[in-house]
Amino acid sequence: MNLAKISANGQITVPIEIRRLLGLKSGDKILFFQKQNGEIVVSNASSEAIRKAQSAFTGAAKTMGVTSEDDIQMLVDEVRYREEK
Question: What CATH number does the domain located at 16-60 have?
């Protein structure tokens, strides 16, 4: 268990053990969210964004017919070509 004191401005210092567990470094943002049971969860906002993006893109490669690095390169080239026009 770790404690943090709230300053007069509502700021807290995240204990070093928690920063290490969450992979936080100076300038990172943390996300607070409340579960249905009322529990408040703290997470690394960057990690959470990556997980959400991964979830959102699940199956996208298959849907688009991307099966290799060559397919990815063709998509990149196609976007570059469109931007040059």
Answer: 2.10.260
